[in-house]
Write a structure and sequence with these properties.
single chain, 361 residues, alpha/beta, FAD/NAD(P)-binding domain, five-stranded parallel sheet, 26% helix, 21% strand, globular
């Protein structure tokens, strides 16, 4: 981007898998676009996660439209391997991502959208906010009441055991991230895992049975049955948007075998220690908050888009009350698979079609 003001037909905000997928579809349709990302490098949203993270889905599900991810189809790539795939995807299709560009405010003016970066102004007829529902770490307010000697880190900033100080650890949040971090930390210290049991899938992703079950669950149940276009999907969506997901890789018996003690929810701080719902205090030297994220849509200054703070008011990513505004990558945007790599491509194709119609109209 040049300094000053410029115009594009469609501005895509975010160059993760969602942003790259819709750039691919817009490019194929001949729709002019610009795509920006706040990170210094494509794929950094993945690179910045904890060191040992591997994707929860095999490569069978990990390709974006038009380019297969390299490697064995039943392998589970590391976060860095997937980040490199995103970078190679942009390079393969010559997607002109402008990195290091953070949109500070998005608003409407004179029938167009205006994206303000502080020293640049970008006008657009359409805007696609291609960001997931999980952008900004969420920590409870009472975390400030813990003793300063306790090291606190949100899972968004967790790198590995070497990052933590000596001594025991309490992991708060028993979803997939919390369970994986707890098991990793348990190799070198005493660990408590706080939060309700979310259950687990009935097979191991790396197992032979998974090669039969995962395609059925992922391609049929999550992709075609549980959608906003089916009665079953519409009934399931509200709970699935707000609730924790079942554990995928770590099983209950894995946590038990690692010596991890499951404890009740953390509800506050008392005498500088984490306080559990049952009145117990945990004397831990480290606390890892795997307490989720909130949407990072504060920069969108368009009150008409509505929503409940968790997500904007939309129909399959189309904000009907704000023509030209679209969202992509949200949890259950259209189906359970919408926030998964193989599902975002379909949603991107749908939105690209709506943008083309609007541009041609």
């Amino acid at each position: 981007m040049a300094n000053g003001s410029e115009h594009t037909n469609t501005l895509v905000i975010g160059a993760g898998q969602a942003g790259l997928a819709i750039a691919y579809h817009l490019q194929r349709r001949g729709v002019p676009y610009a795509i920006v990302d706040a990170n210094p490098r494509i794929g950094d949203a993945w690179r910045n996660r904890w060191d040992s993270l591997r994707l929860f889905t095999p490569n069978f599900f990990n390709s974006l439209p038009g380019l297969d991810i390299p490697g064995f189809r039943w392998a589970f790539p590391s976060k860095d391997e997937f980040a490199d795939y995103l970078e190679s995807y942009a390079r393969h299709f010559d997607i002109p991502v402008q990195t290091g560009v953070r949109i500070e405010r998005l608003y409407r003016e004179g029938g167009r959208f205006v994206a303000d970066t502080g020293d640049r102004r970008v006008e657009a007829d359409n805007v696609v906010v291609a960001m997931s529902s999980w952008q900004k770490p969420r920590m409870p307010g009472f975390s400030s009441g813990l003793d300063p000697s306790i090291q606190q880190v949100h899972v968004a900033d967790y790198e590995g055991p070497a990052q933590m100080q000596d001594g025991s650890a309490l992991v708060v949040g028993a979803g997939n991230s919390g369970a994986e971090v707890a098991r990793e930390l348990a190799r070198s210290r005493q660990v408590w895992l706080a939060g309700p049991d979310t259950g687990s899938i009935p097979f191991r992703p790396e197992s032979v049975p998974a090669r039969v079950m995962m395609p059925f669950v992922g391609r049929v149940v999550f992709h075609r049955i549980l959608t906003t276009g089916t009665p079953m999907g519409r009934r399931a969506r509200p709970k699935m948007v707000r609730s924790g997901e079942p554990l995928i890789r770590v099983k209950k018996k894995d946590l038990q075998a690692a010596g991890i003690e499951r404890v009740a929810r953390v509800v506050g701080a008392e005498d500088g220690l984490p306080l559990l719902e049952d009145g117990r205090r945990i004397d831990a030297q480290n606390v890892v908050w795997a307490t989720g994220f909130r949407p990072g849509f504060d920069f969108v200054d368009i009150p008409e888009m509505g929503g409940d703070g968790r997500e904007p008011e939309h129909r399959r990513g189309v904000v009907e009350d704000v023509p030209g505004l679209f969202f992509l990558g949200l949890k259950f945007l259209y189906s359970v698979s919408s926030e998964q790599i193989h599902g975002v491509g379909r949603d991107a194709g749908y939105l690209a079609k709506q943008i083309t119609r609007r541009s041609d109209g």
